[in-house]
Specification:
The protein is an all-alpha fold. The chain has 20 helices and no strands.
Amino acid sequence: MDLSFYRRNAWWLGTGFLLMFTSSFGQTYFIALFAGGIREEFGLSNGEWGGIYTLATLGSAALLVFAGRLTDTMPLKTIATIILAAYACAAATMALAPHVAVLVIAIFGLRFCGQGMTVQISSTAIARWFAANRGRAVAISVLGFPIGEALFPVLAVNAQEVLGWRGTWLLVAALLLLVLLPAAFFLLRHGRVPQGEGGGDDAVGMGGRHWTRREVLSHWSFYAVFPGIIAAPFIGTCLFFHQVHISEVRGFDLSTMALAFPLYASISVTTSLITGNLVDRFGPQRLLPFFLIPLGCAVFSLSLPGDVWLWFAVLALTGLGQGIAITMMSALWPTLYGTRAIGSIKSIFSATMVFATAAGPGVTGLIIDEGIDFPSQGIVFALYCFAMSALFAVLAPRLSAELPRRVDQPV
């Protein structure tokens, strides 16, 4: 392993990692841990809670389409500081929400700042900063996701037992404002392009050119990739969002279930690092046929009989799929469409992902209210994953043929 790459670029890799790690508080798996307390206090059913989450997330996705373009024009330090400060305010609002309407506003802020903009800022910066080693750089930055997933579920469950769900959100607000914001500001002092990478402006996409957002939306590749790409965030969000429901219908202990997240994280980390090297060697488009297969197996396994240890198998398979997906997808967009307008282009896909995560809890929550539990719904999701994998097996060679030889050729 070439450790000199990581030493030379530690500041920039650390910036990407920190922003991805900070996104944890706006991710579904974290917010879902508070579902029991929130539903009890506000008197919400599964469908009503899912509907609130959907409404707030849809709003954040709509705003992200426009705000995401700011990463093409605004200095990284400025936009990161604004978003992290707003993020802390959203967490404090969540803690103090006196009414369901305020709860919606708080979730909107958490989703927009967390799942939306911190991820958008990190992935756009990494895409521009790195060209020849983009896969490895993405793999390091996205480790913030699984490490957050390993740490925060156990910490949040334990914190709720001591502080309650409102007190835990106050703690999150303090952590964002007093620790993570200063850390990001410190790292972002090194805002120049990493030496030896040449920046992203030299990295063209299909047809040997840089694409605009309008061109992407008018090209067949967007609509061919879209149905499969949204499957990972849709299904993964539903799986984490309904973990309290799953514990109830399957009789799993929620505290024991939380212990599975370190396993999920370790597998996701390992897979992400391996995927980063594969992306640099073969191109992200060649991994498209594989990334949904583990996730399909995961949700199918959830429908099988077993005790709480079945949840560990489900998260292990999910970690395998997500490790591939998050690294591959972060590198896919600059590979296909170039980097000159990558912030604007990524905002489309980021918003699409957020829309998918918005629809998932609401739709599946209503189905649960109709008497079909989530483990039973998993069979349909599994079949969809396998169908999309077959489609991508046909699509990947065509995408490869559209790319410049210097980008697509293994080294």
